[in-house]
Design a protein that fits this description.
Blueprint: E1 3-5, H1 7-14, H2 18-27, E2 32-35, H3 36-47, H4 52-63, E3 67-69, H5 73-88, H6 95-106, E4 110-112, H7 116-119
Parallel strand pairs: 1-2, 1-4, 2-3
Helix pairs in contact: 1-2, 3-4, 5-6
Length: 133
């Protein structure tokens, strides 16, 4: 497994955004995962969206492509360290994003996100950067 897919990119896939669908298809052989946090964020959208049954079916199809990584004590300790460092620097980010970042760091995964400005504050976190042709 090489990539952790952030919630925004999963939402793009679920909405059929062609660039994201093609990107995830290309990266899938290297291994894709999502955090349990992303799983929860997406279910919130499913439960409170306009067509929960249809959206859940789409998400269940997506889940066949990825692993879902749970939280554990080591990830939570990393989260605490990151949260404290960013708060002390006056650059906090949301707890869900920090938990996703801590998961990527713990598993040594590249984070695939459209929210680069937020996540680039996290020291040591590798963000997916497409290769320019």
């Amino acid at each position: 497994m090489s990539y952790l897919v952030d919630t925004d990119r999963v939402a793009d896939w679920l909405h059929g955004r062609q660039a994201t669908v093609e990107l995830l298809r290309a990266l899938q052989p290297d291994g894709l995962a999502i955090s349990l946090i992303t799983y929860g964020e997406l279910y919130e959208g499913i439960y409170f969206g306009r067509d929960p049954r249809r959206h859940e079916q789409g998400f269940l199809r997506f889940l066949r492509l990825v692993d879902v990584l749970p939280l554990n004590r080591a990830i939570m300790r990393r989260f605490a360290r990151l949260r404290g460092e960013l708060r002390a620097a006056g650059q906090p980010i949301s707890d869900p994003d920090l938990l996703i970042a801590a998961t990527a760091l713990h598993h040594d995964l590249v984070l695939l996100t459209g929210n680069v400005r937020h996540f680039e504050r996290v020291s040591g976190l590798e963000l997916y950067q497409p290769v320019e042709r």
